[in-house]
TrEMBL record, chain A:
Pfam (any one): TAT_signal
Cofactor: Mo-bis(molybdopterin guanine dinucleotide)
Keywords, in A-Z order: 4Fe-4S, Iron, Iron-sulfur, Metal-binding, Molybdenum, Oxidoreductase, Signal
Keyword Metal-binding recorded: yes
Protein name: Thiosulfate reductase
Highest taxon above the source species: Bacteria
Family recorded in the similarity comment: Belongs to the prokaryotic molybdopterin-containing oxidoreductase family.
UniProt KW Transit peptide keyword: no
Residue ranges of every copy of the 4Fe-4S Mo/W bis-MGD-type domain listed in the record: 42-98
TrEMBL record, chain B:
Subcellular location: Cell membrane
Membrane topology, as annotated: Multi-pass membrane protein
Chief localization: membrane
Protein name, per record: Polysulfide reductase
Assigned keywords, A-Z: Cell membrane, Membrane, Transmembrane, Transmembrane helix
Entry similarity comment: Belongs to the NrfD family.
Segments crossing the lipid bilayer: 15-40, 52-74, 94-117, 145-168, 174-200, 212-236, 256-275, 287-307
From TrEMBL, chain C:
PANTHER family: PROTEIN NRFC, PROTEIN NRFC HOMOLOG
Domain 4Fe-4S ferredoxin-type residues, every copy: 5-34, 51-82, 83-112
CDD domains: PsrB
Keywords of the record: 4Fe-4S, Iron, Iron-sulfur, Metal-binding
Iron-sulfur as UniProt keyword: yes
Protein name: Polysulfide reductase subunit B
Pfam families according to UniProt: Fer4_11
Lineage top rank: taxon: Bacteria
PROSITE patterns listed in its UniProt record: 4FE4S_FER_1, 4FE4S_FER_2
Length: 760, 313, 190
């Protein structure tokens, strides 16, 4: 055990005198508890990061008994042992004096900022009494549960299921939902991209050089620098990805779909597409081709401001690198109400060159069970999912289920923002309580005023979090979770081209009176009288159930932190298949073309890739075929307002962490010099943005790196609750400017709107 | 791009501030005062009388350097470790050489003061120092010569100290030590005049005072010449050095230069020379002009320190 | 033979993400408000659409002829046997001559020790343990290289022999040991 001196720690964590004094007034915060010695679990622990949702494999090392140094886990090759700024700052969160380390109960009105400390038992009892009463009076379905996705949603949603409500939500509809739903509609499953082997990458504003996803960021950089891949970026602002690109096209916000469709047009009508692949694996090509006929590059230019010549040339260059080329299907940011067809059009451009399961294209991934079947032997251990028998049958419909068009989203995190209408307008029925874990809808959902109204209308709001986030500020009870550096969790599947597992482990002993998520929601379950749905004792027993009581396997996974098995396999890549067959004597025989293409299965209704989808047509009539629909994102006298992610923050959870707040605490608004000049605005001037739902004051950053008709802000700033001392009131609150609207089929909140700019 | 890399406060190019400007001023004043006091003694006919000017320099010399060194020590981030500089020497460092010079200059200056002020000491209840003055008297000539040489060194050192920083075009110039020496003389002359007139009952028509007064114009012209050389050399150096010329036209330090250095420090003394002789040689006028010179020198030190550090190549 | 430690910063690979900045703080316990290392994303420069950022690593350049060492009156600033510009904290009196004299403005007074401080390639921490500096260890895009340029087999020696590099402010005669690979669009801007 390594003894850590707390005072030194706090100094290292960057607690300035002023913030310390303020924080000490905050009940339940780390600053308010008695000093206690800190202990590291070991000198070095392999674990999983949680500073953002990407969850990279990390190693945490105790430096000189004074500090925690976090780097990547080298066992995970594609992650290279690397870690980003957010990940490296984990210790700053751990020892932040403003972190909440005791359960809190609201003392004043909701959002008033008055808190009293309360024991865990009292907190559980208070919540359980309220929830059981609500259940009796309004039914279990009147309670919504939402959670950060990843390891935590399992704990929260298991309790929801045991309690009997279908209403569970992740942040998907505010972040990655669209590309997942589009993939489900076309491939029946989520897809992965093999940027590292790509020779030609087309990118529609997927800013992985700022919103870092370590393996993809590294993959794309290696492709660019070591292998000379060409990168083409369509983005309204000059982001870091745009800077690193070989060409940057400042596309009109929200018109990406037109360019993606024009690319498909050229691929089809210049006969550049892989007709054999399409014939064999794709349904709905003819309808798509007929629809796309009208989407010429010239037409796309009129919509998007991207030159037709460029689109035509790019399509040809792209096709010349087929199948080792890719159009990146993106991640966060819902640019347009036509998000679903935008992502589908992008997938279509991939399908047309037949890059599916090819190096440098997109692929489905190999988990242990499938991989072992191909190998004809148990290359990778298969984990079991500890199911619980006799879970209550839930007859109530989800609140987002009335809209059949969102069907594919129901099991992908749900349409988060439907909580607003259900609570404020009883659509489709009344919600009464909201249980949240590590989610911050006040920042990430749109129309902040409505979210605030929703929280205030609830009979019970419970937040499990590390800070009094902007959302937790409106809770009745705050349950302080241990940080990821203090938690053990279930083994997680990290399979890519071959099977892999990794596990989160505690690096230091728990500070203060916090608890891990699995324990909090298990204990709450017990308080609710649902103990029969928790047949496991603790995380150890749960892990052992996962590895089928194979102690040595568990010990191995824990020691390495990340383990992978076998050789990378992409089913249509002959070189990989050949090497796979070489390694495993009992492996499945290759097809005549040296691939495993015949083994490809798609979980779509047709069993093939659905370029045109009867299923979608049924969910949302008129939407079976991918097509362009004109949208109006702003009024003529307004500017487009768009957002993005910065390398040192997430979209709503890191702005109060000392080290990261010190790097960046304000999101000055990008304004083009001509736009700024018209209003006599200079960098550093105070400005105001006004949209249809709100108004925000901030600072100007005049830069040529943005279109004249657009302003840009990094997301997640401008918290309005007084508890987040380092973040509150700094910068523009994006959610307060965005109206609450949902994109058809994928149910995403829309992140482009019109604003008026003024100097103040 | 937004700043995502954190606090920029430490990168403020102005590291040395007004305290250092005052130290440079005090050191220049001390050296200039001593040089003028001793120099005038050497040129005076009657070497047996301690002139009011010499007495003035005997006061200003030690007092100014002590105040300057106090500024320097308390500007250290570890003032109570200042003694480390007395036992560790890096003779590549201008500061270390300066410390060595000051280490000799300060005690010699005090010793010389005791000699010069031996008749005044009892009046200030410092009579107990008189025997020391008798002990030192035989070495007066040696002390005087050494002190004179060291004063030249100290006066120039203040310039060398900052001209050694080669990243700053405005500072990294061979003219700076000479300029600082000249402006130190200007300050020393003015200081001596003020103390002589106010403390030692000198009159504005004393021979020495008149002589001292006569030094004003040549010193000012020398300073102006050095400044012109400084800025023309920047102009012809090109690159970042040309950028440093903006110090003459931009921001607060341009005002300090034109109003403080040129206006008060040069123009008022020069204009005063066009006054009728009667008005020019009143005590009040002389004190006024001397104060203007001191202000000008103080402004010059501030201008050089702040503007000099603001333009980095 | 003594080592000649150098660092190479590839501005093409650098994405300005500040992972290095954070890792440096964690490893070396750098107090709040001061910084040993930051990468500034400057710009964009140029005319749209041909814009480019400059990824400017701001940290000690480990000069062979270091102005900070020359001006230090007490010898607290020195160059060690492997060429690393170093500081004897107990000899430093905090005159700030080195801070003022540094052409790169990368020295500062550590508010805890009150002595001058700056990047020393993790000499006391990671190098002492036989590891690479913290910034190099975490750099997500492998934009940083560190090693002994006297060893012709080292990555840095090979890199310096094969890639175009430049150093900052060489006209001042400082001979910096931080080399930069210029961005292909931005060109050399020292």
């Amino acid at each position: 055990m390594i003894q850590l001196n707390r005072r030194h720690f706090l100094k290292g964590a960057g607690a300035s005198g002023a913030t310390c004094a303020l924080a000490s007034l905050l009940p339940g915060s780390l600053a308010a508890i008695e000093k206690q010695p800190l202990k590291g679990i070991a000198s070095e622990v392999a674990s999983i990061c949680e500073m953002c949702s990407t969850r990279c494999p990390i190693k945490a090392r105790i430096v000189d008994g004074k500090n925690v140094f976090i780097s990547g886990n080298k066992e995970a090759k594609s992650f290279g042992g690397k870690v980003c700024a957010r990940g490296g700052a984990g210790h700053s969160l751990l020892y932040d004096p403003q972190r909440i380390v005791k359960p809190l109960k609201r003392a004043g009105e909701r959002g008033e900022g008055k808190w009293t400390e309360i024991s865990w038992d009292d907190a559980y009892q208070f919540i359980a009494d309220k929830l059981n009463t609500i259940k009796q009076q309004h039914g279990a379905e009147s309670v919504a549960f939402s959670s950060k996705s990843g390891s935590l949603d399992g704990h929260v949603f298991h309790l929801a299921a045991a309690f009997g409500t279908p209403n569970t939500f992740t942040h998907a509809s505010t972040c990655p939902g669209a590309y997942e739903v589009a993939a489900k509609a076309m491939f029946g499953t989520k897809m992965k991209r093999d940027l590292g082997n790509s020779e030609y990458i087309i990118n529609f504003g997927h800013n992985i050089y700022e919103g870092i996803n370590m393996s993809e960021t590294r993959g794309m950089m290696q492709a660019q620098m070591d292998k000379g891949a060409k990168l083409v970026v369509f983005e309204p602002r000059f982001s870091v990805v745009a800077d690193k690109a070989d060409e940057w096209h400042a596309i009109r916000p929200g018109t990406d779909v037109s360019v993606a469709l024009a690319l498909c047009h050229v691929l089809i009508y210049d006969n550049l597409y892989d007709s054999k692949f399409v014939e064999q694996f794709v349904v709905g090509f003819d309808e798509f081709a007929a629809e796309v006929k009208q989407y010429t590059p010239e037409w796309a230019e009129s919509v998007s401001d991207v030159s037709a010549t460029a689109i035509r040339r790019i399509a040809h260059e792209y096709a010349s690198h087929a199948p080792h080329a890719v159009v990146d299907f993106g991640h966060r940011a819902t640019f347009t109400p036509e998000e679903f067809d935008m992502r589908r059009a992008i997938y279509a451009a991939n399908i047309l060159i037949g890059n599916i399961e090819r190096k440098g294209g997109i692929y489905m991934g190999q988990k242990a069970s499938g991989y072992n079947k191909f190998a004809g032997e148990a290359v990778a251990p298969e984990l079991s999912t500890p199911g619980v028998e006799g879970m209550p049958k839930i007859s109530a419909m989800r609140i987002d289920q009335v809209e059949k068009q969102y069907k594919l989203m129901w099991s992908s995190g749900g349409v988060y923002q439907t909580i607003i209408d259900a609570t404020l307008e009883a659509k489709p029925y009344q919600l009464k309580a909201w249980i949240m874990s590590r989610t911050n809808p006040m920042q990430t959902l749109t129309d902040r005023a409505k979210v605030e109204k929703t929280l205030k209308a609830m009979e019970l709001v419970v937040c499990c979090d590390l800070y009094i986030s902007e959302t937790a500020a409106y809770a009745d009870i705050i349950l302080p979770e241990s940080t990821y550096l203090e938690r053990d969790e279930e083994i997680a599947d990290k399979s890519g081209k071959n099977p892999a597992y990794y596990v989160r482990q505690r690096a230091v002993e728990t500070i203060g009176n916090t608890r891990p998520s699995w324990q909090i929601f298990k204990e709450l379950g017990h308080a609710l009288g649902l103990e029969k749905f928790y047949p496991w004792e603790n995380i150890e027993t749960l892990q052992l159930m996962q590895v089928n009581r194979d102690h040595s396997l568990l010990a191995h996974i824990k020691k390495m932190g990340y383990v992978s098995y076998g050789k990378p396999l992409m089913l249509r890549e002959p070189s990989m298949v050949a090497e796979f067959i070489n390694s495993y004597p009992n492996a499945r025989h290759a097809d005549h073309d040296g691939s495993y293409a015949s083994a490809m299965t798609f979980k779509t209704p047709s069993g093939k890739i659905e370029l045109t989808s009867a299923q979608v047509e049924e969910m949302a009539p008129g939407r079976g075929v991918i097509k362009h629909r004109p949208v109006q994102l702003k009024q003529a006298d307004e500017l487009y307002f768009i957002q993005g992610k910065v390398a040192v923050h997430t979209n709503g959870a890191t702005h109060n962490i000392p080290l990261l707040a010190n790097l960046m605490s304000d999101n000055a608004i990008w304004i083009h010099p001509i736009t700024a000049g018209r209003l006599n605005i200079h960098s550093g001037d105070a400005i105001q943005l006004t949209s249809s739902v709100g108004s925000e004051e901030g600072t100007a950053l005049v830069t040529p790196g943005i279109r004249q008709d657009t302003v840009f802000a990094y997301m997640g700033f401008g918290s309005k609750n007084k508890e987040l001392v380092r973040a509150t009131g700094k910068g523009i609150h994006c959610g307060n400017l965005l109206p609450n609207a949902s994109a058809p089929v994928c149910g995403m909140t829309i992140h482009t709107t019109g604003v008026k700019l003024a100097k103040i | 791009m937004n700043n995502i890399w954190g606090d920029m406060a430490q990168y403020d190019p102005v590291v040395w501030n007004w305290i250092i400007a005052i130290y440079l001023f005090m050191a220049g004043l001390s050296a200039g005062s001593v040089l003028i006091g001793i120099g005038m003694r050497w040129y005076s006919k009657d070497k047996h009388i301690e002139s009011p000017i010499l007495k003035a320099s005997a006061i200003i010399g030690p007092v100014a350097i002590s105040l300057g060194l106090a500024c320097l020590v308390f500007d250290l981030t570890k003032p109570f470790h200042f003694w480390l500089i007395l036992i560790n020497y890096n003779f590549d460092s201008v500061m270390a050489i300066g410390v060595a010079a000051l280490l000799a200059y300060s005690p010699l200056g005090i010793a010389y003061s005791i000699i010069v002020l031996r008749d005044e000491l009892p009046k200030w209840k410092l009579g107990f120092l008189v025997p020391i003055s008798h002990l030192l008297m035989p070495f007066r000539k040696v002390i005087e010569i050494l002190l004179f040489a060291l004063a030249v060194g100290v006066g120039a050192y203040t310039g060398f100290l900052i001209s050694a920083m080669n990243a700053y075009p405005l500072l990294n110039t061979a003219i700076l030590p000479a300029l600082f020496l000249a402006s130190g003389l200007s300050a020393g002359a003015a200081g001596n005049l003020i103390v002589a007139l106010t403390c030692f009952n000198s009159t504005s028509h004393d021979d020495d005072v008149m002589k001292l007064h006569g030094l004003d114009l040549p010193v000012i012209i020398t300073e102006m010449m050095f400044l012109v050389m400084l800025f023309t050399s920047l102009y012809f150096t090109g690159g970042a050095a040309v950028d440093a010329l903006a110090s003459l036209t931009q921001d607060i330090w341009a005002s300090v230069f034109w109003y403080g250095v040129v206006g008060i420090g040069f123009c008022i003394p020069i204009l005063s020379m066009f006054l009728p002789s009667k008005a020019r040689h009143t005590k009040a006028m002389m004190l006024t002009v001397a104060c203007c010179s001191l202000t000008g020198v103080l402004a010059l030190r501030h201008f050089i320190i702040y503007a000099g550090q603001s333009y980095i190549s | 033979m003594n080592k000649r430690y150098v660092m190479v910063h590839d501005e093409n690979k650098c994405i300005g993400c500040q992972a290095c900045n954070v890792a440096c703080r964690s490893e070396n316990d750098v107090p709040e408000g001061v910084t040993r290392l930051q990468v500034r994303v400057e710009g964009p420069f140029g005319e749209a659409p041909n814009l480019h950022f400059k990824y400017h690593r701001v940290s000690c350049q480990q000069c062979e002829d270091a102005p900070c060492v020359t001006v230090c009156p007490t010898g607290a600033a020195y160059i060690d046997e492997n060429g690393l510009v170093s500081i004897h904290n107990d000899k430093c009196i905090g005159c700030m001559y080195c801070v003022a004299a540094c052409p790169y403005k990368v020295r500062f007074i550590n508010p805890i020790t009150k002595a001058a401080d700056k990047c020393n390639f993790c000499k006391d921490t990671r190098l002492a343990r036989g590891e690479q500096p913290a910034c190099v260890t975490v750099c997500p895009t492998d934009a940083l290289y560190f090693g002994d340029a006297n060893d012709s087999n080292s990555d840095v020696a090979k890199l310096l022999n094969t890639k175009v590099t430049y150093q900052d402010k060489t006209h001042l005669g400082t001979k910096p040991r931080v080399y930069r690979v210029p961005t292909k669009r931005g060109g050399i801007q020292s």
